Amino acid sequence: MSGIIGKKIGMTSIYSADGQNVACTVVEAGPCVVTQVKTPETDGYKALQLGYGEKKEKRATKAAIGHFKKANTTAKRKVVEFKYFEQEFNLGDTIDVSLFEVGEFIDAVGTSKGKGFQGVVKRHGFGGVGGQTHGQHNRQRHPGSIGACSFPSRVFKGMRMAGRMGGQRVKVQNLRVLKVYPEKNLILVSGSIPGAKNSFVILEK
Prior knowledge:
By secondary structure, the chain is mainly beta. The protein is 7% helix and 40% strand. Strand 3 and strand 4 (47-54) form a beta hairpin.
């Protein structure tokens, strides 16, 4: 599973060859620097660690600065590990958006927008109590009855209730690559990708 780190720029739409208006997300993918090469001999498994985004040296720890200096690069804001890269890379190599080809399908991983504390209608899609039943009669968007009586005298684990919504790691699979602009480090991917604008995104092949 090879991939690259990027930043979500925003959404737009383009016309396909058959005249369809396709919604797509613009991602600034790379360039990423190989900050560590893990091998079965030294680490027990094979993987590549990539770094993306510039970071002020005074905001990085001394351990991180020394780690990045081994790859002869500056401190990075985002570091992600990828397993099963098809190509062989060495410490300090650069990987850019040319890793992807137009027409292939990829997966996108991002952190969804945080929506704060939400009720059951927005968080879980409850329909509200329109029929004045399930334990209430005058509060449309409340959850209603949530448990039994004297037995089992508790609320079961996993009960869908109000709570914090969003701000979680989300993966969207099988997004088609529509266009690639290597000179600008941009890639256009069909559909939407989780996260706010300028948030970090991981694109996996």
